[in-house]
Design goal:
The protein is an all-alpha fold. The chain has helices at 9-36, 39-45, 50-57, 60-80, 89-106, 108-119, 131-151, 161-177, 179-186, 193-211.
């Protein structure tokens, strides 16, 4: 059903304006960071006005917090669509790993916005009341696959889903956030499909070696 059905025209326009400003903010902040991304640039991209940003978000920093929440919301929305076959725990975990690693690859705005926020030591996302809500959902995908394998003694009982999620994220995020400098440093084009595919296979193998029971 169209989300606009049942909304009053004025309410619909207000929600659309806010959504357009938010998506424009994600684009601008991902390209230029908090300090480099101006309010006027966001409003222009959204075909709106500066005053609307202050009306909906209070300040440039408030808009940045909302942009961070939005990229996490989109991340969780994509994660919620992932289907795991928990009757085959190894394949379920492979599915989860592939989703997370590819999400970093396919959403550069997610990587660059997180880079920007880490330069601020998490100052803005810590203001969000929804940050822990977002993390629970993401870790939950790994947890379901891991728990299924632990229940059948295929995976080590002492392994924590949080640690596996961080392991996957670390390998996926670092590869994408540093692919240009690493490509120059290693003399290998890390964005090339065959090079990336090899890395993805390596991540899957590394995680499975970590969680599997010793034979």
């Amino acid at each position: 059903m169209n989300g606009k059905v049942g909304r009053a025209p004025r309410q619909s326009r207000a929600q659309d304006t806010r959504a357009n400003l938010l998506q424009a903010a994600v684009t601008v902040f991902a390209e230029a960071g908090l300090h480099g991304g101006s309010v006027s640039r966001v409003s222009k991209l959204a075909n709106s006005h500066d005053r609307m940003i202050y009306y909906y978000f209070g300040s440039k920093e408030g808009l940045f917090v909302a942009a961070l929440e939005e990229i996490y919301r989109q991340y969780n929305q994509a994660e919620s669509a992932v289907e795991l076959d928990l009757t085959v725990p190894i394949e379920a975990l492979k599915t989860a790993i592939t989703f997370f690693v590819r999400y970093f690859r396919d959403h550069p705005e997610f990587v660059t916005l997180l880079n920007s926020e880490n330069l601020h030591r998490g100052k803005h996302i810590s203001q969000s009341l929804r940050a822990s809500e977002f993390s629970r959902s993401a870790v939950g995908l790994v947890h379901r696959a891991l728990a299924a394998g632990q229940a059948t003694s295929q995976f080590r009982a002492e392994v924590l889903s949080r640690d596996i999620y961080v392991m996957i994220s670390a390998m996926g995020y670092f590869y994408q956030s540093n692919r240009y400098t690493l490509s120059a440093f290693l003399g290998e084009p890390l964005s090339e499909p065959d090079v990336y595919d090899r890395w993805e296979a390596f991540v899957i193998d590394a995680v499975l070696r970590t969680v599997r029971q010793a034979s």
